[in-house]
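To make the argument concrete, we let one protein speak, a sequence paired with a row of structure tokens, as a model reads it:
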Amino acid sequence: MRIDSMALKKSIASTGVADYDVTVIGAGPYGLSAGAHLKASGLRVRVFGEPMDFWARKMPQGMLLRSPREASNISDPTGAFCLEAYERASGKQPSAPVSLDTFVAYGQWFQHQLDSDLDKRAVARVERGESRFKLTLQDGESMTSDCVVVAAGIGPFRRKPAVFQDLLPHQASHCYEGRDIARFAGKRVAVIGAGQSALESAALLHEAGAKTEVIARISQLRWVGMHVWLHRLGPLSWMLYSKNDVGPAGISRLVAAPKLVHYVPLKIRDKIRTRAVRAAGARWLPPRLTDVKVTLGRAVMAATSSGNEVQLRLDDGTERRIDHVLLGTGYDVAISRYDFLSEDLRDSVAQLDGYPTLTSGFCSSVPGLHFIGATAARSYGPLLYFVAGTEFASRELTSYISRGREVRR
């Protein structure tokens, strides 16, 4: 049954003061950070979601963060709840690179320390009224909010190339679909891709006892941070690289200024974004891949079920018979896949290739609806793909919403 949108708008508008000034959908690094900053500014805030759920349940078990330690801090208003503070409080020995388990525990500690107004229930639907939004939770409870911040992460955006679409879930999965690497022990697994998720998954599979092969289109694997000496040139290194270490020399420094990137023409901004996050692995991966078969410059042309096996045919005519395909093929941002956004709301958001078009304060074309995290990378640059972007995003967002509240008063 289709809801009368005009009747809905009138009913929402007539309920008086909204239940919240801001609601945040998502409790990953961006949602937790935004909640902390917004609350500290005096706004009535509610964050929805299970803290660090995607990181805890979907990332491969045993994973290490590619980002350096100093770029793995979730931003809070005072900077007091950094990764190092968590390690001191928990008695955990600092390590680099940072393990996934440590980062998940850190995010959960971050939320607890700041006593954020967190509701672990999921938001089933967000609808727009004339002056505010209506949120309906999965248990049927509803509430209103003046602003909605979408920090729902990349879960729905997993990229599954068409050639693999007909394979069953037990035959093909994405790197972001589950933690259990150990279940592939003794299995023949083809890993598709040449980025960090693909290469690290291949290493983890090999270490778990799987017979692993990496298959990638590129002719040569790329590695991030191999030229360590470039980071040891004092002031010159500071001019070339930011602490976030996103992108090559020079581009890294520009990427660290999302507000500046926002004003760069789109074509150049896209070139900066794609160059900064092109497929590459961390410098600590090569030794772990020494005994892993790597096939480069090849594409999978066909993938078919053959009994309990999967048969792959490559573009050079060779074939592989394997037990499972693991897709390290990244993700394609498309906010239309956020099924909690009503159809009317999704259609009202100006988009560019699936990304929302954002103005100051991460505001979409729908007043009061904001997007942060990976969905903001097309507007503000590749830093928004990484945890390091929580500082800029939370401060910019909070400043914008706080100013808007003062104007409304």
Q: What stands out?
A: The domain at 162-222+279-327 is CATH 3.50.50.60 (FAD/NAD(P)-binding domain). The chain is about 30% helix and 20% strand. The first strand starts at residue 20 and ends at 25.
